[in-house]
Amino acid sequence: MNELVTRALLPAGLRDALPAEADQEAEIVWRVTQTFKRYGYARVKPPMVEFEESLLAGSQAGMSRHCFRLMDPDSQRMMALRADMTPQVARIAATRLKGEARPLRLSYAGQVLRVKGDGLRPERQFGQVGAELIGADEPAADAEIIAMSAAALADVGAANVSIDLTIPYLVPAIIGWSQVPPDIAANLRAALDRKDAAAVANLGGRVGALLADLVAASGPAAVVLAKLDGLDLPPTARGEVVRLKEAVRLVQAARPDLALTIDTVERRGFEYQKGLSFTIFARGVRGELGRGGRYLAGEDLMEGAGETATGVTLFTDTVLRALPFPAAEACAFAPFGTPPAVVRALRDGGNLVRDGFGPVADAVAEARRLGCSHIVEGGKAVLLPANPKEAKK
Question: What mean pLDDT value characterizes the chain?
Answer without folding.
Answer: 90
